[in-house]
Amino acid sequence: MQEAAVLIQHKALKEICNSLLQAVSINPKDAETTSDVTVCAELRGISSHGIARLPAYLKRIRTGLINARPEFKYYPKYGSVTVMDADNGLGQVAACKAMEKAIDIAGQTGAGLVGVRNSNHFGVAAYYAMQALPHDMIGIVLTNASPAMAPFGGRKAFLGTNPMAVAIPGQGDDSIVVDMASSITARGKIRLCAAQGVELPAGWALDEEGNPTTDPAKALQGSILPMGGAKGYALAVLIDLMAGMLTGGGYSVAVKQLNDYSGPVNAGHLLMAIKIEAFMEAETFKGSVSDYIARLHEAPRAGAVQKIYAPGEIEQNLTRERLEKGIPLTGEQVDLLEKMAAEYGVAISLDY
Hints:
Blueprint: E1 6-8, H1 10-23, H2 28-43, H3 54-62, E2 73-78, E3 81-85, H4 91-109, E4 111-119, H5 126-130, E5 137-143, E6 164-169, E7 175-180, H6 187-196, E8 205-206, E9 212-213, H7 216-221, E10 223-224, H8 230-245, E11 267-275, H9 282-298, H10 313-325, E12 327-329, H11 331-344
Parallel strand pairs: 3-4
Antiparallel strand pairs: 1-12, 2-3, 4-11, 5-6, 5-11, 6-7, 8-9, 8-10
């Protein structure tokens, strides 16, 4: 693991992201949202979905491949369900607004479901699922992505890493947050390994010929393996059909990679909010979730395991630590921010 070159406060990093996005004509409110999602990824230790993605976002905006001033349109057909056309806007803004809409619907009907089409890569999925937590709701998020994974038994990428996230509230700060790709790892982590010249763990990827490889460059030309073999493959198919095909968005090879500048990404998302009160008293449920987390902590541990964590607890602990002490940036991340600042004429300071 690379040592940090600098510790930066999350508000300062957010200001830098804001300035870069506004430099390519994103309005302040949308820049704020996108920056918040980007910094959330760094706070949770998911750097593959943090500032590493900014260069592609900025280039796509500057070249018109992401619409800097989209007009989101909603097409409600039934009380609990609506479809949003994101007008090729930033995925972070579209997904955030879609979850807000799902929460609003759930407040009236008990459950809200919003499908998003004509969108872009939206960063860390947990962000949107967690939007539901303060409303005593469960948040569920699905999104598809550009082909990076071959069908089970295949050798040519056909499916995205197609992640899902679920957030369930407990009492106080307790929560269960699952955020995972249907592949064994995110494509962004492969890119980070390639940029850092680090070999991949065995069992992560195949080369173009379908042979196992630990070379990230060959993996990017080949395919990532599914999580859990055939099970991860099946999950990726389901998410592609529900987030892409069902919403009227792109799916499979119709979804472009961020660094493919031949056209819009055309991703699809599906966001859900479920009101706990539609099933039972919210405080009772949240108390049971907190008790469940406590029981997980108390479960017998194997071998040298020091602690059993609830899903999302490690990321939550890391977020608390980084909010207090700062976000560690590697030398490469610092260089990346300085390069973007120079390219887009933005004055930044990393002396925090």
